[in-house]
Design brief:
five-stranded antiparallel β-sheet; 23% strand; globular
Length: 379
Amino acid sequence: MSVQDPQPRRPRTGTGNGPHVALRKLNRVTVTYDAPLAPLTTFRLGGPAARLVTATTDDEVIAAVREADDSGTPLLIIGGGSNLVIGDDGFDGTALRIATTGFALDGTRLELAAGEVWTDAVARTVAAGLAGIECLAGIPGSAGATPIQNVGAYGQEVSATIAEVVAYDRDLGAVVTVGNADCAFSYRHSRFKADPARYVVLRVRFDLEDAGGLSAPVKYAEVARALGVEPGGRVPLALARETVLRTRASKGMVLDPEDHDTWSAGSFFTNPILSDAEYDAFIGRVHDRLGPEAQPPGWPAGDGHVKTSAAWLIDKAGFTKGYGSGPARISTKHTLALTNRGHAKAEDLLALAREVRDGVHAAFGVTLVNEPVTVGVSL
């Protein structure tokens, strides 16, 4: 989850050279100046923040947000850092790292603090015998980010199980509870993403399912094949989770500090959703480029729209696995992941992203949209 206010300005810090931790602490809040942000992101790139505040309770989060708002200081919210591209110049304001914890089960109702590690929370629900998010195992980041992006994978989206989101509303200056119907969920989108400077997610509540130790119906064909069931079938929860983790790992989508293919934000581009007319024009360009037998993936997306595959587009435009010769390259395991090979700068990554985006548009007339949030830079 990320929020950036316009017109950032650097507060006076009185620092010397390099980062240091302020002597002042309020409860467990730690304030660091000229703080490196790259280690807080899965890309491991980007410049420092003028000031970094780490909050471990909801009250500390709210106090830090109010302090920034009252002083007019630009604010960047950081959870798990798995969906951030921070520019090389860093962030000229206060970065607030949400490190809150809290995992509470009441029957099939699950409440997660925003700072909970998402993949660990999924593992705990599976161990508790509750279904509904098991196919979201291995997704990096924190629980607070899941409603913002309407995180989804392998046939599941959090919008199917989120009951309500508790957030601090910066416009109202108050904590609000937003029910599922008011979250405006759609593909990789929500009310919170549409108005990113307004809401700071504090807690997320889910309604899960007790299916006697079985998973939710398996919807994704690749996972169903791996499990040896027909789509719509159920399998033991632990088996579903383990299969998804293996599938993700084979694509470099499970974080591993030793594997540069995982130094990424996962899928860098969202799958395009085209109107029927746009899809027809797209098919024409596919046939012109690849021949009349070529058929790209396509799925109904409602209201006269079709969703197609960004990975297919990237590959067929000539950007294959491992593409690139610099410090930022396409993953050797999955064309949707742009990766830091160890010493990349943000501009290296963005140059590659622009090359891929522009190449796909030139080939097929489709403009890819980046999924990660950019801070201080743009694609």
